[in-house]
């Protein structure tokens, strides 16, 4: 079995695709995988906010077209970058075990922030969290991959930037001694739905059915529940909404917010996860 994996060309995207390839080869020892590099609109247009160029779909449109044309068999995505609607005839067939879902404030090593620091983020959600975390902070748009953003911080274009802990971990960036890293607690900033999750997309059919075997069931339930919150809130990439679910002892605990100002948390049996999402969103 040969599986062609469509992926963006950034260092993080390639690492995540290799993780998926390793999971496939662990489950199917005779499988052969090939990474197919695809450039998306989101990789090309870096001087405009995402909502100005098409929202989250700018990271997957070209990849979905390649999949539907039969040029690739599956695609690997950061699940938080997925739009609500996937291309017809495709599905998320698997998700890998979730990494740390926290956001992280990154600053230059040993420097104290000024009273009105400039914090780089293009996320409305993260901007809301920064204002809660740092009284007087100003946010400024920043685009580019993680390495590019870290270099912009080092070059003093910003006093700090906010990045996902999952990406920093996968890149090994926490060992970069140029920077200090401060985890932002969920009480201050609820993560983007599905942050830290790697999702595998495929055409509906035999490959999808086979690859369900590499999916982490608890992560999939959380993925599904947080996507349900997105759907109920009709939240796009410019929304400050957040959702985070975790499972323990057959129970799922879900935290939701639509503005990062007020959040609600409740638990239910895992089988009742959809109703839990509906109940909490109605109560916001």
List key phrases describing it.
284 residues; alpha/beta; D-Maltodextrin-Binding Protein, domain 2; Double Stranded RNA Binding Domain; five-stranded mixed β-sheet; 10 helices; 33% helix; 26% strand
Concise synopsis of the structure shown:
33% of the residues lie in helices and 26% in strands. The protein contains 10 helices and 13 strands.
How much of the residues is beta strand, in percent? 25-35%
Distance N to C terminus: 48 Å
Major β-sheet annotation:
5 strands, mixed
Q: What radius of gyration results from the CA coordinates? A: 19 Å
The number of helices is 10
CATH H-level name of the largest domain... which superfamily? Periplasmic binding protein-like II
CATH first level of the largest domain: which class? Alpha Beta
Strand order of the largest sheet: 2-1-3-10-4
User: Looking at the structure, what is the overall shape?
Assistant: globular
Structural class: alpha/beta
In the CATH hierarchy, the architecture of the largest domain is 3-Layer(aba) Sandwich
**β-strand number:** 13
Q: What do we call the CATH topology of the largest domain?
A: D-Maltodextrin-Binding Protein, domain 2
Number of domains: 3
Order of helix and strand elements from N to C terminus: EHEHHHEEEEHEHEHEEHHEEEH
Q: Report the helical percentage.
A: 25-40%
**Mean of all residue-level pLDDT scores:** 92
SSE topology:
Elements: E1 2-7, H1 11-27, E2 32-37, H2 41-44, H3 50-53, H4 61-68, E3 74-78, E4 90-95, E5 103-108, E6 118-120, H5 124-133, E7 138-140, H6 146-154, E8 160-164, H7 165-171, E9 179-184, E10 198-203, H8 206-211, H9 217-233, E11 242-248, E12 251-257, E13 263-269, H10 273-283
Parallel strand pairs: 1-2, 1-3, 6-7, 6-8
Antiparallel strand pairs: 3-10, 4-10, 5-8, 5-9, 11-12, 12-13
């Amino acid at each position: 079995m040969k599986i062609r994996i469509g992926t963006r060309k950034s260092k993080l995207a390639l690492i995540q695709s290799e993780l998926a390839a390793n999971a496939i080869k662990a489950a199917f020892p005779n499988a052969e995988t090939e990474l197919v590099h695809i450039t998306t609109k989101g990789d090309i247009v870096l001087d405009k906010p995402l909502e100005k160029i098409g929202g989250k779909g700018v990271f997957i449109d070209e990849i979905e077209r390649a999949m539907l044309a039969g040029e690739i068999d599956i695609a690997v995505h950061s699940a938080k970058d997925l739009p609500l609607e996937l291309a017809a005839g495709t599905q998320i067939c698997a998700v890998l075990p979730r990494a740390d879902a926290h956001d992280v404030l990154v600053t230059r090593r040993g420097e104290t922030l000024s009273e009105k620091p400039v914090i780089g983020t293009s996320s409305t959600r993260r901007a809301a969290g920064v204002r809660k975390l740092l009284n007087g902070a100003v946010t400024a748009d920043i685009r580019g991959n993680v390495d590019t953003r870290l270099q912009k911080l080092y070059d003093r274009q910003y006093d700090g930037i906010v990045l996902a802990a999952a990406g920093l971990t996968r890149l090994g960036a926490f060992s970069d001694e140029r920077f200090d890293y401060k985890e932002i607690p969920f009480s201050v900033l609820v993560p983007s739905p599905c942050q830290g999750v790697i999702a595998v997309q495929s055409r509906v059919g035999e490959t999808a059915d086979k690859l369900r075997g590499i999916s982490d069931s608890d992560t999939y339930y959380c993925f599904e529940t947080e996507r349900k919150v997105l759907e109920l809130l009709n939240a796009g990439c410019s929304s400050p909404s957040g959702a985070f679910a975790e499972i323990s002892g057959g129970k799922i605990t879900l935290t939701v917010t639509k503005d990062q100002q007020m959040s609600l948390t409740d638990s239910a049996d895992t089988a009742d996860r959809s109703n839990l999402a509906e109940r909490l969103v109605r109560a916001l």
